[in-house]
Amino acid sequence: MDILKTEYISIEKLKAWDKNPRLHNLDSIAESIKEFGFRDPISINENNSEIEEGHGRLNALKKLKQDGAEPPEFIIKQNGTWLVPIQRFNDSELNQKRYSLAHNRTQELGEYDEPLLLENLVDLKDDLFATGYTNEDIDLLNEKLNKDDNNIYSKKIQSPVYEPKNEKPKHTDLFDETRVKELISEIEKSEISKDDKNFLIKAAKRHCIFNYELIADYYAHSSKEVQELMENSALIIIDFNKAIELGYVKLSEEIADQYRQDYGE
């Protein structure tokens, strides 16, 4: 089994890869190295002595040396030069290029668990020096997370995956009007005005209970014309853009806004 070996080499002997596309914030890297030490050895290709990974750290180290700083921890000062920890790899020119690009790219592709990041930053709010973060970053992240939490319409809409059954349900199985009939019966027996009765009878129809699983089966076995009418009635939503166009999403927002006004969040 191969074992990674670390050795020290003069900072002047390290050769940059002239095709490295990565740009660095040297001030931030230098601040971190000065505070925590040079903890990550530089990788070089022993076939051509070029750096495969570590350009930013090397240039930040050179900046510290040029600015007259003392060698950070894990850097050896010897005969006026600084010795840097390195690890050698016997790579072809192709693998050198592939690894250098992969190292940068894989870091970019990662994401943060932002609530957990905020928790850590808040814990360090009085001691953020050399972390690359500021209290302004905490405020911005906190504002972003609060905005996302409060925006109940910001979540991505995903349509459910449903496999219809083989048989088409009966019409009478698609809904339950039991409560509707009870209310209408009470309304009709009452001694209220005709206009009030008409209004309350219409309102009673809101209590019709729909079986949406069976409605989905019914939709799957219906003609195109029936399907379109079911979509227009919002019994089935296949096209979210169409649902928005027909006003169903807007209606939901108005109901939610009214609820918040009446009952708060």
Describe the structure.
With 265 residues, the chain is an alpha+beta fold. The chain has 4 domains: 7-110, no CATH class; 112-151; 157-174 and 211-265, no CATH class; 178-206, no CATH class. Helix content is 49%, strand content 11%. It contains 11 helices and 7 strands. The chain has helices spanning 26-36, 55-66, 93-109, 114-123, 135-150, 178-189, 194-204, 212-220, 224-232, 240-245, 248-263, and strands spanning 7-10, 42-45, 50-53, 76-78, 81-89, 175-176, 209-210. Strands 1, 2, 3, 4 and 5 form a 5-stranded mixed sheet that branches. It has a two-stranded antiparallel sheet with strand order 6-7. A hairpin with a 4-residue loop joins strand 2 (42-45) and strand 3. Helix 1 (26-36) packs across helix 2 and helix 6 (178-189) packs antiparallel against helix 7. It is elongated and about 105 Å long. The chain starts with 6 loop residues before the first strand and ends with a helix. 10% of the residues are buried. Mean pLDDT is 84; it is low at 151-161 and 244-252.
Break the fold down into its secondary structure elements and pairings.
Elements lengths: L6 E4 L15 H11 L5 E4 L4 E4 L1 H12 L9 E3 L2 E9 L3 H17 L4 H10 L11 H16 L24 E2 L1 H12 L4 H11 L4 E2 L1 H9 L3 H9 L7 H6 L2 H16 L2
Parallel strand pairs: 2-5
Antiparallel strand pairs: 1-5, 2-3, 4-5, 6-7
Overall morphology: elongated
Number of DSSP-assigned strands: 7
The count of domains is: 4
Class by SSE composition: alpha+beta
DSSP helical segment count: 11
pLDDT average, as an integer? 84
Strand content: 5-15%
In whole angstroms, how far apart are the ends?
Answer: 60 Å
Segments where pLDDT lies below 50 for 5+ residues?
151-161, 244-252
Largest sheet: 5 strands, mixed
> What is the helix content?
40-55%
Element order: H for helix, E for strand = EHEEHEEHHHEHHEHHHH
Oligomer: single chain
- The gyration radius over C-alpha positions equals 34 Å
